[in-house]
């Protein structure tokens, strides 16, 4: 099973390590491996430390933390060979790194197959003057982001968050912008629900992530769908979506699943495995801001994608 990667970027002092600390301390059963530049800033509660060896700190909750020394791809290969293998990998970049270079490295075919880049998170200090967005490196960090998290709101003056949101909007950054009080970000945005071979449950209504700004809606179908119609449907839904991912079988390619991802305003399709008997042929999870997209509207739009007959 592929291990999704969360790439955390942001300028020096933005609060990236605070976000990583929160993810590790509140893993909620997820087996997370964090790749960081400096162990010293990782402030894990002492009772969570289970041991350290070979540059890896093991945590009692099943997570691990390792130092990025040398080649990133070699570090990832080492993590993927661990037993048990992590369920997620979080990479914290240097504050002066252009994440586009790291993204290119993660597009290595071997790594992409075993550890696909799931989400790029850019952490921004809410108190940063909007003029700082003129910096080429800051713009590069924002440009690749699927999610922008505004940190240190408790330290900024009133209205700083709104000013930063407007400055980001002016740059036409397609990412979803969220507040990150004390490093906390809705896990449903960072780790969307896993779509695997297990039967998908049919939900009577939306499930809401921890932060009441977003809700998760699921759609399933026992029939193959038309890819052109689905592409039209996603085009209609895109302005209302924060994230989406799923698997579906199309009329155009029967007997083969297609993997669908939508993040940062961008949709991608990739070939998947053969369908599993007894499991709905189409399973897609959507995350939208609370109240922006109703289940009835979603079902109505996607019902048009189901092949007739």
From TrEMBL:
GO terms for molecular function: hydrolase activity; nucleotide binding. Zinc chaperone that directly transfers zinc cofactor to target proteins, thereby activating them. Zinc is transferred from the CXCC motif in the GTPase domain to the zinc binding site in target proteins in a process requiring GTP hydrolysis. It comes from Bradyrhizobium diazoefficiens (strain JCM 10833 / BCRC 13528 / IAM 13628 / NBRC 14792 / USDA 110). It holds the Pfam family CobW_C. Keywords: Chaperone, Hydrolase, Nucleotide-binding. This is Bll7303 protein. It comes from the Bacteria. Residues 214-306 form the CobW C-terminal domain. InterPro entries: CobW-likC_sf (IPR036627), CobW-like_C (IPR011629), CobW/HypB/UreG_nucleotide-bd (IPR003495), P-loop_NTPase (IPR027417), Zinc-reg_GTPase_activator (IPR051316). It catalyses: GTP + H2O = GDP + phosphate + H(+). SUPFAM superfamilies: Hypothetical protein YjiA, C-terminal domain, P-loop containing nucleoside triphosphate hydrolases.
């Amino acid at each position: 099973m592929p291990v999704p990667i969360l790439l955390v970027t942001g300028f020096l002092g933005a609060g990236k390590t605070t976000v990583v600390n929160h993810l590790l301390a509140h893993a909620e059963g997820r087996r997370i491996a964090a790749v960081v530049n400096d162990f010293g800033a990782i402030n894990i509660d002492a009772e969570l430390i289970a041991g350290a060896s070979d540059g890896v700190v093991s945590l009692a909750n099943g997570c691990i933390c390792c130092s990025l020394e040398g080649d990133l791809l070699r570090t990832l290969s080492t993590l993927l060979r661990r037993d048990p293998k992590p369920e997620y990998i979080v990479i914290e970049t240097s504050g002066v790194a252009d994440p586009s270079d790291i993204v290119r490295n993660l597009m290595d075919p071997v790594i992409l197959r075993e550890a696909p880049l799931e989400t790029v998170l850019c952490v921004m200090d809410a108190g940063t003057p909007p003029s700082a967005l003129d910096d080429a490196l800051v713009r590069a960090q924002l440009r690749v982001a699927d999610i922008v998290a505004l940190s240190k709101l408790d330290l900024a003056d009133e209205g700083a968050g709104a000013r930063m949101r407007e400055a980001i909007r002016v740059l036409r950054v397609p990412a979803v912008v969220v507040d990150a009080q004390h490093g906390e970000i809705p896990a449903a945005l960072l780790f969307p629900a896993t779509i695997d071979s297990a039967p998908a449950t049919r939900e009577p209504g939306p499930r809401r992530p921890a932060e009441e700004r977003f809700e998760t809606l699921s759609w399933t179908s026992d029939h193959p769908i038309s890819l052109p119609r689905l592409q039209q449907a996603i085009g209609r839904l895109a302005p209302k979506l924060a994230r989406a991912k799923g698997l579906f079988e199309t009329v155009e390619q029967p007997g083969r699943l297609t993997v669908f991802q939508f993040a940062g305003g961008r949709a991608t399709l990739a070939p998947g495995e053969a369908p599993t008997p007894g499991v709905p042929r189409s399973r897609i999870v959507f995350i939208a801001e609370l109240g922006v997209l109703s289940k009835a509207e979603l079902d109505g739009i996607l019902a048009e994608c189901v092949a007739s007959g």
